[in-house]
Structures are given as C-alpha cells and as structure tokens.
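If you are new to this repository, start here. Below is one unmodified record pulled from the training split, so you can see the exact layout before writing a loader.
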Amino acid sequence: MTETVLLRPGHRMSRVIKGGWQLAGDHGTVDRAQAVRDMEAFLDAGINTFDCADIYVGVEEMIGDFIADLRRSRGASVANTVCVHTKLVPDLELLERIRPQDVEAIVDRSLQRLQVERLDLVQFYWWDLSLGDPLEGLSALRDLQRSGKIANLGINNWDRSQIAPFVDAGFDIAAAQVQYSVLDRRPAGGLSDWAAGHDMQLVCYGTLAGGFLTDAWLGKPDPGFAFENRSLVKYRLIIDEFGSWNAFQELLRALKTIGDRHGTSLSSVATRWVLDQPQVAGGIVGARYARHLPRTLEVFDLTLDEEDHTVLNAVLDAHPGPQGDVFALEADRTSRHGRIMKYNLNTRPDDKVLGADD
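And here is the target side for that same chain:
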C-alpha cells in the first residue's frame, strides 16, 4: 500500500512524490501529451503528490492541464486529491530590487498555470541571502498564506543556519526540500535533528541521483561529463564528491546485492534507504511516464533489515560523501557545482512578471 504522511492538518502527501524537474528543459525530449496523460496513473496508484517549480519551464502548466482534465472527466472531488508542491525562486539578478507585489505576481502566475485556487505548498529559495531582503520575500508569502492563496510554506536548499532566523522570526516552515541520497548524506549532518525539534519535515530530491542509482549504470565505465542532460552532469559531480567511479560501482553492487535478496531493484533499495532516514517525509522520484510506475511502487513492499544495513554501511562508512552544509557546494557560484546552475529562469522574455519599473 502506498505510504502517506500528514505534513500539516489537511495536507496529506504520498511519501513518494512524482518529480517534475525531468519534464523541464535541458533534460532531453519529453512527450508532453503522454506525460500529462500518465499523471492519472500515478494518482490512481496512490502517488497523489507532484513536485514542480516556478522555474521548471512548462511543468506547472503540464500539471495544471492534468488537474483540469481530471476535473472535467472525474469531477472536482477527484481533482482536489492532487497535492502540488511548487517553489518560488526569484531570479538572482532581481534579488536586490524584488518587491512584495512581485512575489504575489509569481504566486498568481503559479495559480493560473496550475489552474487551482490555492497552492498546497510553496517552497521558498533565495539564491544569495546577502542580497536584497529575503525576510520581506518570505513575509510576502506568509501574507498570501493568510489571504488563502497558499496553504503551507516550505523552504528549498537551506540548512539549519539559514532556516533558523526565519523560524525564530515566527514563520511556520512545514518542510525543507533538500538533496538526500546514499551518495549525498549532508542532511544527516545536523539538519534532520534540528528539523525534528522545530516541527519540520524533509522532502528529498536526488534520491536516485538523476538516474545514476539504477541498474542501468551497474558495471558501466565512467562516462565522464559528456552529457546533454544537465541533471546527469549535476549528479556526476556528486559521484566525484562520494569518491571514485570505482567507489560508486561498489555502492551499486551493494544496492544490487540487497535488491536481489528482496527480489527488487537497486533503485528501490536506494529510495527505501532515504525514506527510512529520520525526519524524512518523502522522496521525489523523477518518473516521467506510467511505464516507470511498477518499478516506482516497489519501494512500498520493501523493508530493509539489519543484514541489508550491514552490507550497505560497509560501503557508506568508507565513503562519507559530500561534506558541509546542505547545498553549500552548489551555492558557491564559482564552484564546479555552482557553475552549472541557471540563476535567472523566473522571468522569461514572453512572460514579464518581475522587474517592471513602473
């Protein structure tokens, strides 16, 4: 049976979340119509939660079309069971001049794209906390929460030192979306314990490292960085932080050994490991189409035992992986991790929401 968790009263989310980043640009060809149609199969299987963002080009619109189709074909009661987690990520170049009305314009645009009257969860991210007034930005979201346009607030890619001032200022932060996998265990460095003491749960992306933590890569030679898919470049860098390509293959073999014991895939083992970590509410899995659904659902039939953890910990103890705060490597815009980021995707040439001087 599909596992769910109550993030806040009235906000029940599936513990596996259908990701949306892989449906955006820079991730290869997407059959848009098929992807929208297949969302219904995920919902019917119990995966009611969909992750997207204002800066994932075209993804809010795709989910909005799905919700509208569902409303027409099966009624509002079924359409209302869809839980959407979106984000608000103002452009880096606008941080010093963004205004509350700009924040509201982004939220209104997400409401329009998603074809809903209220956003279930808006996860806030500010590229550089030294620029502009992030407190005013999050305050604008809280005002929109109070007016009914937003149900719950979350943050994205911050560690406890970045989140704490906002919590201390009285913000109710329901969730922190962070990267978490057997390759990248930075949230265990203090964030998960801190979150437990502040009624905050973790929503995790990168659980399968953009597809690297799957059988497809087992036994394969190091591809280097010759990828057209930006997601693969990002997670190939994380593999470097974990250790050598040989160390990564050692990890895949351990996951495969455990999967074979249970008659399941190594990717299901990797996802289950994340879901079992303290304070984790859910993991985002980037399954584009319904054909990936059976493999995605395997995780709910899997229980890792002491022998499994012994096999896996033999590798993890030898390779601690990326160190430091959550997203610290990526937040350094001069680093290999930071240089592949796109910092100004919110304002598009044909969609002038932000930055007007009048």
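Two things worth knowing about this chain: The longest helix spans residues 245-262. Residues 242 and 321 are 4 Å apart (CA to CA).
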